[in-house]
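Kindly inspect what follows.
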Amino acid sequence: MAMDKHHHHHQMPLTKSASRQRYNEWVFRDVPSDITIEVDGGIFSLHKFPLVSRSGRIRRLVAEHRDSDISRIELVSLPGGSESFELAAKFCYGVNFEITSANVAQLCCVSDYLEMSEDHSKNNLGSRAEEYLDSIVCKNLEMCVEVLRQCENLLPLADELKIVSRCIDAVASKACVEQIASSFSRLEYSSSGRLHMSKQANCEGDWWIEDLSVLRIDLYQRVITAMKFRGVRPESIAASLVSYAQKELTQKSISGSSFQEKLVVETIVSLMPVEKFVVPLSFLFGLLRSAVMLDCNAACRLDLERRIGSQLDIATLDDILIPLFRHAGDTLFDVDTVHRILVNFSQQEGDSDDDMEDVSVFESDSPTATPSQTALFKVSKLVDNYLAEIAPDANLKLNKFIAIAETLPAHARTVHDGLYRAIDVYLKAHQTLSEPDKRRLCKSIDFQKLSQEAGAHAAQNERLPLQSIVQVLYFEQLRLRNALFCSYPDDDIKPMHQSWRINSGALSAAMSPKDNYASLRRENRELKLELARMRMRLNDLEKDHVSMKRDMQKSSSRRFMKSFSKRIGKKFNIFGHSSSRGESTSPSRHSERTESKITDRT
């Protein structure tokens, strides 16, 4: 009997009616049937002799029905159903057919079920199928993948017969060997005579990546695990995971079940390489969104959050705006997840900007490790933009907003304009906040780190608590004093150092809340007057400076220098340094003349 073992075309599966029609073509017509075999609803009227000569199971079953003239046997749970049995029956009748990658797994399983082994008959179906599997299939990666697909419906028997494990080992070793060969092919000599490896595009030559995407998730997981063990490049593993996820979570999402999608996400996350920057950040965020939506297990989500946290400095605002798919009273975006990501970022290992080439693991056990200042600066801007985006949400609780704002260390923000803007948006959207809550919210802002424009806006922002406005006005005054000192450093003007923090807003135990509030209002009003007066004086000095430059070009006489000294002396009397009575720097009565010129913007 001849069976073609070298033709690899796939056979079309047979329906039950087609199967019955086909077997009538090859079964004996001149000899009456003496046995009926029922398989998966299909009925086969056959002959005992060719079947029992090859199948130990059928011989045993026939022996149990010796008393009856025509035996009827039902083969329950036969692997591959009626289609597989038809191939086995053809073999028993000596009919030629092709062993291919599409049917070899079925043949191995059905021959085991029917006991068509060498012990029962030489050169039997089992040994022929095994020979084809080992000598043909396991030397070809594409055929191994096709056999694994066939095994999906033949488990657990295909596993017990080691069909699955042999194909998986073959795929993993083949991919590894091809990568090694590819690496050797890129070896070349430089102009100096040194041997080096030419650059290769990511995953170039890894044609198997797309092929693996056809496998079911459980077998795909086993293939990737074997590849990692064999040493296949992490970049190739990551590329395969991306390809598989795109197919399973986008192309099949319409017809697929949420349980299946959840299993895919959790499995892919568990298979990801540990190396940094191998898995694209956008892909990690995509998986995290799916994990939130599908309510994946905690280990899966925490793993994604750790990986994202390790490279958060290259994320965008759109990346971290993760929608929340839960209850009606929830916030629009998943603030808790972003907070955990920020905590992971703050606790990650500190890397310099230049040593990211050969990075190792994305996690660090060091409790004192911190991210680089450059990364901190980038993430601080990202956080401030995120806060401004989520601030209008009416369901966003104050504690959560503050937790996000204060996750980064104090030195992360060199300028607090972004944080001030976000807090101002929150104050606009939550106008029922109490004064203590407003103070707690604004405590995050370092008013010394506001730009001149932001400081001017804050000084007249009535949404801020009174204590914060007093601080803003104080630092504006301090900024102007130091600007004057820098303009004329030789004069007797003492700069006010920015290390001293204003404390006027602290509640005194000796004052009632009403008196304390009145005191803050008074101090606020005085600081505004002093600030306006100083701005006017600074403008006068700038005009004098221009005038003096013109005078110096016309004359260089001593008389001019004496005049210059007198003019400057008069200007600096506004700070009261020449007063013999030791008066304070609080606004004098002369400031009342300028009061009418000040207009408070709302």
Summary: The CA atoms of residues 39 and 76 lie 7 Å apart. Confidence is low (pLDDT under 50) at residues 4-20, 349-369, 493-510, 556-602. The longest helix spans residues 513-554. The radius of gyration is 41 Å.
